[in-house]
Each structure stands twice: as C-alpha cells, then as structure tokens.
Amino acid sequence: MIWDKKYECMPRGETRRLQLERLKASVALSYERVPFYRAKMEAAGVKPSDIQTLKDVTRLPFTVKSDMRDNYPYGLFAVPMKDVVRIHSSSGTTGKPTVVGYTRKDLDTWAEICARFITAGGVTSDDIAQVAFGYGLFTGGFGLHYGLEKVGASVIPAAAGNTARHLMLMQDLGSTTLICTPSYALHLGEAVRDAGILDKIKLKFGLFGGEAWSDEMRPQIEQSLGISATDNYGLSEIIGPGVAGECEYKNGQHISEDHFLVEVIDPETLEPLDYGETGELVITALTKEAVPVMRYRTRDISRLIPEPCACGRTNMRMQKVTGRTDDMIIIRGVNIFPSQVEAALMDIDGTEPHYMLVLYKDGAMDALEVWVEVSEKMFSDQMSKLHTLEETVKNKLKSVLGVSVKLKLVEPRTIARSEGKANRIIDNRNK
Ligand code: DLL
C-alpha cells in the first residue's frame, strides 16, 4: 500500500518543480528570520533571489552540528516561541545537545511522512504496534507514535527498556508490529528465543531505524522474530524519523522529497557528487517552519538511487546508510567502518551477531581488536573447533577489511546488549 499517492508517486518533473518552489520559500524564510543564516549567506555572497534552479542549492553555505550548538538553544528558530508547540533534542553524547522545535504544521508534516514509511513497511490500521523507542527528547518514540496513529494502528507506547515487560506485552496484547532500533530488535529476538515463545507471539512487521545496520543483519532479526523488517532513516536536526524509509522491496529508502532536498557530497572536497556515487548526505528541509535547515551536513554515508522502484513510488531512494564519517576507523591507512565488520561476521556459523570494536595504540599506530561472541553450542564444543572458528573469522575479517586485525572470541552473552542505539566501539587509544 502507498500512504500518499499524490506526493509519493508524483511525476519526477512535478516533484522537481515543487522542490524548487519550496526551496526558494524556505531560503527566503531563513534569510529574513534567522540572523545566523542571513550572516552566513552574506558571507558567501548569495541572496535568496540567486536561487533560480535546484542546482543553485550548491551556492548556499553548509550548516553543521556545531552551528546548532553555537546557537543553543533557540538561535536558529524562525518563529516566536508562541508558535512552537514541541521541543526535542538530539542524542549528542558530547557537549550541549542540539535543540529543535516544531510548529503545529511541522508536527502534522512529521506524522504524515512517518505514516508513509510505516505504510511502506506493510503496517495498516489492522495492526497493533509496540513502540520500544524512548519517549522523551529523542525523536524516535513520539515520531513513530503519531505516524502510527495517523495510519490507524493500535499503538502501545511501551517505550525503551525492560525486555521482560516487552515480551509480556507482545504475547498478551498480540502485537503485530515492533518499533525500535535494529540492535534492540536483535536483543529482543534473542530474548524470545531464550524464553521459547516464538510460537506465542504474533509479530509480522518490524520498523527499525535510528542507527546503521547491515543488510546481512536483516535476516538474523527477521528469523528470530518471525517478521518482515524495514529500515527507516531520519535525524532530529532535520525533523526526526521520516526523512526516508524502505518499501517492500527493501532496496533503498524512499525519500520524502516534497519536504527534503537531499544531496550527496564528497566529505573531503565538499564538492557535489553524482547520483549513484557514495558520499555524505546533505539535507535541506523545504517546509520546516520552526527551525528551517539549510544544507545540513549529516555525516551519514550513502548514495542516491535515481532508478524507478518496482513499488510504484517515484520518490528517489537513498541506499541504506552504511555508517558515519565520524565512525570511520583508520588502521594502517585502511578505512574501516563498523558496518563492514558487522557484514563480515554475520554469516559465520558458530558466532553470534554481537560484536565490539576496541581501538588501542600499538606503539604510535592505531590498532583494532574485534571481539566476537561465540554461540553457546560452539562454546561447549571442543577446543579444536574453537581454533578453527578463530581462523575462519580472522580470515574473513582480513578479506573483507583488507587489513589484519586482532580477534578475541568471547564467551556467550558477555557483550553488553543495547536497549536503544548500540555502542559498538570502545576507544582505549588514550589509555
Ligand atoms: O535517530 C531519528 C530516528 C529515530 C530515525 C528513530 C529513525 C528512527 P538522532 O538521534 O538525531 O535522530 O540521530 C540521527 O542517527 O544522523 C544517523 O547517523 C543515525 N540514523 C538514524 N536512522 C538511521 C538509519 C534519530 N536508518 C542519526 N540507518 C543519523 C543508519 C541512522 N543510521
């Protein structure tokens, strides 16, 4: 099913025309109402009237996370507080968070675009949806909640954490849809297996987002919970979840292009890249009222897929985000992303999909040790099998990463499970 045929299946030319019209309006709004944007545009020698084609977006200055922090809390707001009806903030781990606000219209837009990917993931008003995202400053809980209500699903706002209660609710209330991060879905899958209740739950769909997960992880989660799992993407600086989401073909996430103009740039040269080329996503919000955002550098790595999708939606897709430029690890000159390690580990028999990347110093050089959990069965087998497993994992990592890394096989259930966004890197380089 398609939630909003008018905007999701619009002829490309019309989408582009609508984007240009909205881009002009949004740039003018930022220039008039937000002194920070006006100053940045003046410094770059560009005026709102210079935006005559969609390509002209590249004349605009970038916005980065520190701009948001420097203008903490309300410096980038374009409306008076009486028009702001909700405030959220990003899940920043260092320094002040970034604060974002929403007008009533922004909230309507947000629920609409969430309804799109929720529908694309198979969920309808017949479904009972258990939300296991945090409800609070994080945009996950509220974003999905209102989108699900819009679709007409019966929403259970169970919130993050308390796995035993999630299992109980799932069984007793007959939840058909699970909403959380992919790493928590993995954990719930394990908990369902431990409790032996796969035949007692009625889950059909999983809508997962908020962090990167490899394509190789998908079947693991799907099988452990008996569901069809789709990926959805967003970030609080732009709106929250709803920027893009997968359809039933699970091959790229359809972008809500009537609300967002997405570019891909080379993160080093900052030059725009062509469709199909992999780089950093840069997003301009086209309709945001409370906090318009111009060319936000997301740090997320992906590429645009302009080819039409068999589902009938005409909105361009972006490839599953493989990681963030700031998560990149460089070992002896080779760039490594956690997602590559994840993909390499997924199909090896005898290991569990739980891993940790530990960075340390080897002399002056950065070095990496990968911890991988051994499955219970393998662990109880003879030592010789463990040695063979160790060799298999080491060779696989070397062939996928292009560099040898240290490996430590660890006992079952020793790597911390996540209830929200997983942290899979331990940085011991300064120890
Ligand atoms: O994580 C918004 C969200 C909530 C999206 C729930 C989807 C579902 P932030 O806390 O601001 O917002 O974090 C945004 O999370 O820049 C990405 O690095 C990462 N991220 C979000 N969704 C995905 C995804 C929410 N599907 C940051 N795949 C983004 C990969 C994702 N990374």
Structure description:
- It is built from twelve helices and 21 strands.
- The protein is of the alpha/beta class.
- A nine-stranded mixed β-sheet has the order 4-3-5-6-7-8-9-14-13, with helices on both faces. It has a four-stranded antiparallel β-sheet with strand order 10-11-12-15.
- A hairpin with a 2-residue loop joins β16 and β17.
- α10 packs across α12.
- The radius of gyration is 22 Å and the shape is globular.
- 5'-O-[hydroxy(phenylacetyl)phosphoryl]adenosine (DLL) binds next to α6, β7, β8 and β12.
SSE blueprint:
Layout: H1 5-8, H2 12-33, H3 35-43, H4 65-70, E1 86-89, E2 99-102, H5 104-120, E3 128-131, H6 139-151, E4 154-156, H7 163-173, E5 177-180, H8 182-195, E6 205-209, H9 217-225, E7 228-235, E8 240-246, E9 253-255, E10 260-265, E11 279-285, E12 296-302, E13 304-305, E14 317-318, E15 323-324, E16 329-331, E17 334-336, H10 338-346, E18 351-362, E19 365-374, H11 376-380, H12 383-401, E20 406-410, E21 425-427
Parallel strand pairs: 3-4, 3-5, 5-6, 6-7, 18-21, 19-20
Antiparallel strand pairs: 1-2, 7-8, 8-9, 9-14, 10-11, 11-12, 12-15, 13-14, 16-17, 18-19
Helix pairs in contact: 2-3, 5-6, 8-9, 10-12
The structure holds 5'-O-[hydroxy(phenylacetyl)phosphoryl]adenosine (DLL).
Low-confidence stretches: none
Distance between the amino and carboxyl termini: 53 Å
Largest beta-sheet characterization: 9 strands, mixed
The count of DSSP E runs of length 2 or more, i.e. the number of strands, is 21
State the helix count. Answer: 12
Q: Determine the strand fraction and express it as a percent band.
A: 15-25%
Helical amount among residues, as a percent range? Answer: 25-40%
Mean pLDDT, to the nearest integer, reads 96
